[in-house]
Design goal:
about 425 residues, mainly alpha, Hypothetical protein af1432, 2 domains, two-stranded antiparallel sheet, 23 helices, elongated
């Protein structure tokens, strides 16, 4: 029996699934079927441990995650159309590599559109046995399961396109586990998530998966990701000067990373609007706070959830989503709220330049005077402005460089894996 305080991989995947499906429905549903195919193929193969199978099935659910980004490929890179089949696999693998707890499996995602003939015909140094198997499972779902065809009769027709051992493994797996009938009648989902329930996540793993979801906002708004990186760095520096202990500072860092997680559900035309939002648009934008709160609920990380997603609450009770008042807002919440404001003010967007130091301090002191934000923290920030901003820029530079270079790496890999 699972204790209430425990979070399983099954719960975490369902939460990520729910949140990402608010962007575009369907891709992770395909991922679930592919993961179920992989589960049965890997069990039939016999050489993988349960932990290895769990992780490979988890990465299978997210194997098409890059498709959310490259749907607008002109924003990522200008590429030859013959290479388009690899775009989402490459971008998704880089996202998994740098922003997920499954980073060691990024090559599985990278190569999931490679067949064994591709390896034979092209000189490449990235080989993933599991990626080849995922390619086979992906093909089977797209061509046969989704079309509800008689797979056993038709799969032998593609024996020249895939490894004979994969086709034999497929037939053996169905003979052993009768899994095809479950794919067609829908009962596979219960079995798949019961399998994921076997893995109890540590608090660190829960936070790592939540962070993966937070960074998936990249698929819709690069500016939001960059804002988040700066909020984390500024909030940490303020907390350090405030004298908070290492455990509390660690909470602030993670909460800051997750503070805008609800924006994954906001329409991209609002997130990226080059100008002031209308009243109706602003009301929609405000809903990210409660969406983020709900996404992070029931994960046994309520302390992190509250520090991060309540950053729009105000001391006078005029904030949102709950209208909390001064005595309900902790020091950590107040610090992240100010970090969020500062990051927005120093950020450069297509429609605005960074605000000056003097203007930022004036805005903050005016807000403090009207009992919106904490005056002590504002004074601490103002007195140490140059130091905080400089240290925050140093602190965030590595992550910002990784993020900024991701598109460059995407272009390099795309050229490498394009047919000659």
């Amino acid at each position: 029996m699972i204790e209430n305080s425990e979070v399983t991989l099954s719960q975490m995947i369902k939460i990520i699934h729910r949140a990402i499906n608010s962007v575009e429905r369907g891709l992770l549903n395909h991922g679930e079927k592919v993961a179920y195919l992989m589960l049965n193929l890997l069990k039939a193969e016999g050489s993988y441990s349960e932990e290895e199978i769990i992780n490979l099935c988890a990465i299978s659910i997210f194997h098409d995650i890059g498709a959310y980004k490259v749907a607008e490929k002109d924003k990522v890179a200008e590429v030859d159309e013959s290479a388009s089949v690899y775009e989402h696999a490459i971008y998704g693998s880089l996202f998994i590599k740098y922003f997920s707890p499954l980073s060691d499996l990024y090559k599985v995602v990278l190569t999931h559109h490679f067949t064994h003939t591709y390896y034979l015909e092209n000189e490449i140094d990235v080989i993933s046995i599991e990626g080849l198997l995922l390619n086979f499972a992906d093909y089977v779902d797209r061509m046969y399961v989704s079309e509800n065809t008689n797979i056993k009769d038709t799969i032998l027709k593609i024996k020249d396109e895939f490894l004979a051992e994969h086709i034999d493994l497929f037939l053996t797996a169905d003979s052993k586990f009768n899994f095809l009938s479950k794919l067609f009648d829908g009962s596979y989902l219960k079995e798949l998530y019961e399998f994921f329930d076997k893995k109890i996540l540590t608090r660190e793993e829960v936070l790592a998966y939540s962070q993966m979801l937070a960074y998936s906002i990249d698929f819709r708004s690069e500016a939001t990701v960059k804002h988040t990186i700066i909020v984390e760095a500024i909030s940490y520096q303020i907390g350090k000067l405030y004298g908070l202990n290492k455990k509390t500072l660690s909470k602030i860092k993670m909460a800051s990373t997750l503070h805008d997680i609800g924006k994954i559900g906001i329409p991209v035309e609002i997130l990226e609007k080059p100008g002031k939002l209308t009243d109706d648009e602003f009301e929609i934008m405000k809903s990210h706070a409660i969406m983020g709160y709900n996404i992070l609920s029931d994960l046994n990380i309520d302390d992190i959830r509250d520090i991060g997603t309540l950053h729009h609450e105000k001391l006078d009770g005029a904030g949102y989503p709950f209208g909390l008042k001064e005595n309900q807002l902790t020091t950590e919440m107040r610090i992240v709220a100010i970090g969020d404001i500062v990051s927005a003010l120093i950020g450069v967007r297509s429609y605005k330049e960074a605000f000056s130091k003097e203007k930022i301090i004036k805005i903050l002191t005016d807000m403090a005077a009207y009992k919106k934000i904490d005056s002590f923290i504002v004074n601490l920030f103002a007195e140490n402005y140059d130091f905080i901003i400089e240290e925050a820029q140093k602190q965030s530079s590595n992550l910002m460089d990784i993020y900024s270079n991701l598109n460059t790496e995407f272009k390099i890999l795309l050229k490498q894996f394009t047919y000659k």
